[in-house]
């Protein structure tokens, strides 16, 4: 079994910024409410012509460059997203073509906001087993395309973006040390897009009833998130044989600053040991963790040998965590 780590990380966000002040003009809300309840100030919104694979492409190019390889070297591309360009072909296949990654296999993974860590766990196995050498894992979303901008319960939360990493073999003392993936499908109703699948195919009625937009029971999701973020982080540290004191950087899913704070407290971490960029990007679902990771890297916040804990939760319900020695 080989040790697997990150060779390079990249990110991309669309240019257009949607501020709290602009949201005030769209729905009955205000900057003070959004800031105090969520920690968000602004989020990025994809242009009409921009789809998820476009964001994924930019983040992937940067990750590949930083890894010091060529797209032709990739053996596999895995994209985590709940906003694929279309139902099929997969966004990963669209990306494979765009990158010119001629020898790569490609598929998508759907585990909502936990999707990126699910994809890491999945893809890293191919390298650990010696099947593949270079794997690209991307988290990319254009949540603005499935957000109802007349629903103040959801429209303030979501943003668009992408993050990507290239995985490869690393020295035995580095790389991913443990994963925890979990699900509780009984909570599926709390966070969903109802229509457009085989249960409720798209029709004039589904459009009129706004069933193609995100539906969320925020308070219930919040309670689940506070409980699971801390416990999933604790358990994955234990699996890696590490303790809270070993953590150099927490890279949490950016869903709500209060959820992140609860996780920080549970792990007894000083605030500086957590990545927080929610004020700039809002919740970008599967893109949130790789976006935070790439940004932390760019800011020089991760050094070789640092112990990182990645942790997220999302629709499904799902959760996922990992310990990574950089
Ligand atoms: N502006 C002003 N008031 C608002 C807004 C808004 N944008 N949205 C809701 N309110 C109102 C509500 O109507 C409610 O009013 P009421 O008491 O008269 O009914 C009041 O504010 C308080 O609502 P709560 O739901 O109690 O607010 P809460 O403190 O729970 O915060 C929030 C709401 C921010 C949505 C929070 O519950 C949360 O972050 N939940 C988790 C969401 C999440 O992480 N989702 C993950 C998505 S991940 C994925 O897989 C895509």
Automatic annotation (TrEMBL):
The keyword Lipid metabolism applies. It holds the Pfam family ACP_syn_III_C. Residues 107-185 form the Beta-ketoacyl-[acyl-carrier-protein] synthase III N-terminal domain. Its EC number is 2.3.1.180. It catalyses: malonyl-[ACP] + acetyl-CoA + H(+) = 3-oxobutanoyl-[ACP] + CO2 + CoA. Pathway: Lipid metabolism; fatty acid biosynthesis. It is found in: Cytoplasm. Residues 237-326 form the Beta-ketoacyl-[acyl-carrier-protein] synthase III C-terminal domain. Its main location: cytoplasm. CDD domains: KAS_III. Keywords: Acyltransferase, Cytoplasm, Fatty acid biosynthesis, Fatty acid metabolism, Lipid biosynthesis, Lipid metabolism, Multifunctional enzyme, Transferase. Residues 254-258 are annotated as: ACP-binding. One of its GO terms (molecular function) is beta-ketoacyl-acyl-carrier-protein synthase III activity. It comes from the Bacteria. The active site is at 113, 253, 283. It is an enzyme of class 2 (transferase). The keyword Acyltransferase applies. Catalyzes the condensation reaction of fatty acid synthesis by the addition to an acyl acceptor of two carbons from malonyl-ACP. Catalyzes the first condensation reaction which initiates fatty acid synthesis and may therefore play a role in governing the total rate of fatty acid production. Possesses both acetoacetyl-ACP synthase and acetyl transacylase activities. Its substrate specificity determines the biosynthesis of branched-chain and/or straight-chain of fatty acids. Belongs to the thiolase-like superfamily. FabH family. The last Arg residue of the ACP-binding site is essential for the weak association between ACP/AcpP and FabH. Homodimer. NCBIfam families: fabH, PRK09352.1. This is Beta-ketoacyl-[acyl-carrier-protein] synthase III. It comes from Marinicrinis sediminis.
């Amino acid at each position: 079994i080989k040790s697997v780590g990150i060779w390079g990380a990249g990110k991309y966000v669309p240019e257009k910024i949607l501020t709290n002040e602009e949201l005030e003009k769209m729905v009955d809300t205000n900057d003070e409410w959004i800031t105090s309840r969520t920690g968000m100030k602004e989020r990025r919104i994809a242009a009409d012509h921009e789809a998820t694979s476009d964001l994924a492409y930019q983040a992937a190019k940067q990750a590949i460059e930083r890894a010091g390889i060529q797209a032709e070297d990739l053996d596999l591309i895995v994209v985590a997203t709940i906003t694929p360009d279309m139902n099929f072909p997969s966004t990963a296949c669209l990306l494979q073509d765009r990158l010119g990654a001629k020898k790569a296999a490609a598929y998508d993974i759907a585990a909502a906001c936990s999707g990126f860590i699910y994809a890491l766990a999945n893809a890293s196995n191919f390298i650990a087993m010696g099947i593949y050498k270079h794997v690209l894992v991307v988290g990319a979303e254009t949540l603005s395309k499935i957000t109802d901008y007349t629903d103040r319960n959801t429209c303030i939360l979501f943003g668009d973006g992408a993050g990507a990493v290239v995985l490869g073999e690393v020295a035995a003392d580095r790389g991913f040390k443990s994963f925890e993936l979990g699900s509780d499908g009984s909570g599926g109703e709390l966070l969903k897009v109802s229509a457009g699948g085989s249960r409720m195919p798209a029709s004039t009625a589904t459009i009129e009833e706004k069933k193609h937009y995100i539906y969320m029971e925020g308070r219930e999701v919040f309670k689940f998130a506070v409980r699971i973020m801390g416990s999933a982080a604790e358990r994955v540290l234990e699996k890696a044989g590490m303790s809270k004191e070993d953590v150099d950087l927490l890279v949490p899913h950016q869903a709500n600053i209060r959820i992140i704070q609860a996780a920080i407290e549970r792990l007894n971490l000083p605030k500086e040991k957590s990545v927080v960029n929610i004020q700039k990007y809002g919740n970008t679902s599967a893109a949130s963790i790789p976006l935070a990771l790439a940004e932390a890297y760019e800011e020089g916040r991760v050094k070789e040998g640092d112990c990182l804990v990645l942790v997220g939760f999302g629709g499904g319900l799902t959760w996922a965590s990992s310990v990574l020695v950089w």
